[in-house]
Design goal:
By secondary structure, the protein is of the alpha/beta class. Helix content is about 35%, strand content about 25%. Bound molecules: adenosine-5'-diphosphate, aspartic acid and magnesium ion.
């Protein structure tokens, strides 16, 4: 018999009825004799609702108090699920992150897990109980409640699976696996049987929110077998694996397409083309705790240059303010910004061994009349920044161009 960690996301526990359906499902696994640790998210929409209330109290809610608030969402679902399991005749025990204890650093709202005490969970499992743990939360050394960043219950699931050396970590959600691109945007998106950790890591970091990036990092580091599945439909889901050979059989050069609507672009024009200018402009952005993503600097023609970079949309006003200050000190001409942009990325380990991928991507976009504003590449991905209104068209045409669309036979099935 196996030890399985199962994580159920927000839509899977969105109502009393769905929590009861999760309890039925967990009971089914117990009947087969498996030891089960369940991680649950808050009911869907609850975390947003709590953050909304916090924003009404303070323009920038106090990070410590925000964690005290948002961690309550998961406390509701662990208790309800345990009640439903007991009602079905199964012993179950709920744990908050602090009760486990999931020790994290003290970076409120984006804490990292440092250690997990698995002994109490182990003795409950030995006593035949289902262990139900609140996702997304931990506790720092001083005892303060911390949270792991949006989507952080995935990371709780994987971290518990690593600590308990579980046979598998199953991420149950509202899609039946990892797709070639977000199936809610492209009808022709196809479920992948396997994807490598490396590709999944890129997909997650480039905007595919099906798994939190830290969960994938954790699973890769501790070699946790990780599978994404539908909560209420049977099927094999998608296995995230270290085995590239498995993936090569299935996938061509590009494994998937990710996109991110959360970025905005800032440009400083007429920057004197002298050593240190980029550093003078970007250092204060870093000091203001703003993360910079794509950066492009033009070749200077008249002794001045333009520097463009992207940041999270939520940070664009703050970034523009900081930038205007330094730009005037440097006697740059102007600072502009545009938050109607998106980043689209193609990802695949196959790019290492294939030439011409970039030109195929650029050609596809050109054929659709889509202008590329910025480009950035790494060994296994190419990202472009384009106008937001072309997002769906660009993803759909790249999806076809890289042969990712569903086989016609599959569509009939
Ligand atoms: P949960 O609440 O269960 O954690 P999420 O909303 O965080 O669920 O993640 C599932 C969603 O991820 C899907 O509904 C889908 O729209 C989105 N998604 C984005 N990219 C992909 C992809 N490549 N494959 C599957 N789902 C994706
Ligand atoms: N409830 C948290 C969120 O909405 C964590 C999670 O669902 O993974 O981000
Ligand atoms: Mg999620």
């Amino acid at each position: 018999m196996s030890l399985i960690v199962q994580k159920y996301g927000g839509t899977s526990v969105a109502s009393v009825e769905r929590i009861q359906a999760v309890a039925d499902k967990v009971a089914g696994f117990r009947e087969q004799g498996h030891d089960i640790v369940v991680v649950v998210s808050a009911m869907s929409g609850e975390t947003n609702r709590l953050i909304g209330m916090a924003s009404e109290m303070q323009a920038t809610p106090d990070p410590r108090e925000l964690d005290v608030l948002v961690s309550t969402g998961e406390q509701v679902t662990i208790a309800l699920l345990c009640m439903a399991l007991k009602d079905r005749g199964w012993e179950a025990k709920s744990y908050t992150g602090g009760q486990v204890k999931i020790l994290t650093d003290n970076s409120h709202n984006k804490a990292r897990i440092l250690n997990i005490d698995q002994a109490p969970m182990r003795s409950d499992l030995d006593a035949g109980r289902v262990v139900v743990v609140a996702g997304f939360q931990g506790v720092d050394e001083s005892g303060a409640i911390t949270t792991l960043g949006r989507g952080g219950s995935d990371t709780t699931g994987v971290a518990l699976a690593a600590a308990l050396k579980a046979d598998e970590c199953q991420i149950y959600t509202d899609v039946d696996g990892v797709y070639t691109t977000d199936p809610r945007v492209v009808d022709g998106a196809r479920r992948l049987d396997h994807i490598t950790f490396e590709e999944m890591l890129e997909m997650a970091s480039l905007g595919s929110k099906v798994l939190q990036i830290r969960a994938v990092e954790f699973a890769g580091k501790y070699n946790v077998p990780l599978r994404v599945l539908h909560s209420f439909q049977d099927g094999p889901g998608t296995l995230i694996t270290l085995d590239e050979d498995l993936n090569k059989m299935e996938q061509p050069v590009v494994a998937g397409i990710a996109f991110n609507r959360d970025e905005a672009k800032l440009t400083v024009r007429g920057v004197p083309d002298i050593p240190g200018a980029a550093s003078k402009l970007l250092a204060p952005i870093g000091e203001a705790n703003i993360e910079v993503d794509v950066i492009v600097q033009n070749v200077a023609a008249d002794g001045t240059t333009d520097l463009t970079f992207t940041v999270h949309r939520n940070d664009v006003d703050k970034a523009a303010k900081v930038l205007r200050g330094v730009a005037s000190q440097l006697q740059a001409k102007e600072v502009t910004y545009d938050d109607k942009i998106v980043k689209i990325s193609i990802v695949g380990v196959g790019m290492r061994s294939h030439a011409g991928v970039a030109s195929r991507m650029f050609n596809t976009l050109a054929t659709e009349g889509i202008n590329i504003q910025m480009i950035t590449t790494s060994e296994i991905k190419i990202s472009v920044i384009i106008e937001e209104r072309y997002l769906e068209l660009a993803v759909r045409s790249l999806h076809s161009s890289f042969d990712l669309d569903k086989e016609p036979t599959e569509e009939k099935a």
